[in-house]
Design a protein that fits this description.
mainly alpha; single chain; 16 helices
Length: about 400
């Protein structure tokens, strides 16, 4: 059902993703020239996606072009007051999104061309301004509109920035709901965030097993990483303390600490260690990389509140210890140890079942090595070995 919401041609998008992965395999010398040629011939996509430099150029030119035509259109529509301006922004936003969707994406098969991103961002921004310019009294309206529009960008256009914005707006909504309820819910906001985004990570893992297409791989990586990172931030002592002071007007006397301070100290230390443990146990790079980032933030947090009084010596010793540990681990992992190695092998998303099937079809089934009559073969009764017969 989710696939029906996507504006792009799923089959063409899968071809493009798989071809990109196969190209990386070819560059890694996993595929031969012949195998790469076969895959490129059979899985070339008609989607238009230029180089990153051209994308940036198209994005800038589209922004300039849309801003240029907006002025004359406003004059043609005789916009005089603020209410007319708000309606015009709403109308322009719908037009930009419609043209981007039906003309550029569905008809001309643009994908990450720079023009599509500009049309999506400007169109949704104009719609947001048209809806929110009336200054609604309820603060919950702002993140709710942002969540809906960014969800459209994330789901229909598979936009990763839209996915990040969706998570941020969802966090804003959750925060506003807790503030609105008030009372004990205000004190429990960190625990609510840890529970909800932990549940979000679990839901992503379950949904990922159903949506196995390579089209969704990057989105799941971003969603799961954000979920784990927000769970950590919700329990980080520095984040909880500073946001409580800034956003919830918490006043602390000298020597006074926030409620549940001990728990947040524990979370700050244990959550990165737990991520690292699960990453090693499950051989998950996502957990390992998230743990390293959160571990660095935990060290900074503890250093900020607990100092030995010798910052230069602390930094020097910490750096030296990290270098020594990294060197020892690198030497240890020169040989494969329990599924880990220091060698750069294939990325996780390259080893999908679909890609394996492609390689197998182009090698085992489709790329038979031509033989000649004079070919030397190891067959019983023809050359030798255990099956040698009278023709040896």
């Amino acid at each position: 059902m989710i696939k029906s919401w996507i504006a792009y041609d799923i089959k063409e998008l899968e071809k493009k993703k798989l071809l990109s992965s196969a190209k990386n395999l070819y560059k890694s010398k996993i595929l031969s020239e012949e195998q790469w040629g076969k895959i490129k011939e059979n899985y070339t996509s008609k989607l238009y996606s230029p180089s990153i430099f051209i994308r940036v150029l198209f994005f800038i030119l589209t922004l300039i072009g849309l801003s240029t035509i907006s002025g004359p259109l406003a004059l043609i529509l005789s916009i005089n007051d603020f209410e007319d301006l708000r309606i015009a922004f709403l109308l322009f936003g719908v037009v930009f999104i419609t043209v981007t969707d039906f003309v550029l994406i569905q008809k001309n098969h643009h994908y990450l061309s720079g023009v599509t991103e500009a049309g999506i961002y400007i169109g949704l921004s104009f719609i947001a301004f048209g809806v929110l310019a009336s200054e609604p009294n309820n603060m919950l309206i702002y993140p709710l509109v942002g969540f809906i529009l960014s969800s459209i960008a994330a789901v229909r256009y598979l936009n990763l920035l839209g996915l990040v914005a969706t998570f941020l707006f969802f966090g804003w909504i959750l925060f506003q709901l807790c503030i609105t309820i008030g009372g004990i819910m205000e004190a429990l906001i960190p625990f609510v965030f840890m529970f909800v985004f932990g549940l979000t990570y679990w839901s992503c893992t379950k949904l990922e097993k159903k949506l196995t297409s390579v089209v969704f791989e990057d989105a799941f990586i971003v969603a799961k990483t954000l979920s784990l990172f927000i769970v950590y931030l919700a329990g980080n002592y520095y984040v909880v303390r500073e946001l409580s002071i800034e956003l919830m007007n918490l006043h602390l006397a000298e020597g006074e600490d926030i409620p549940f301070a001990f728990l947040f100290y524990v979370f700050t230390v244990l959550v990165p260690i737990a991520y690292l443990y699960f990453g090693i146990k499950k051989r998950s790079l996502l957990f390992i990389r998230t743990s390293l980032l959160t571990l660095a933030l935990s060290v900074i947090t503890l250093k900020y509140y607990f100092s030995l009084g010798m910052p230069m010596l602390t930094i020097t010793l910490s750096g030296a210890i990290l270098i020594i540990i990294s060197f020892l681990i690198f030497r240890y992992l020169r040989q494969v140890q329990h599924g880990f190695t220091s060698e750069k092998l294939l990325h996780d998303k390259w080893s999908s079942q679909d890609l394996t099937a492609i390689i197998a079809s182009q090698t085992l089934g489709g790329n038979k090595v031509p033989t000649t009559e004079n070919d030397t073969t190891f067959k019983g009764g023809e050359f030798g070995g255990g099956g040698a017969g009278s023709n040896w």
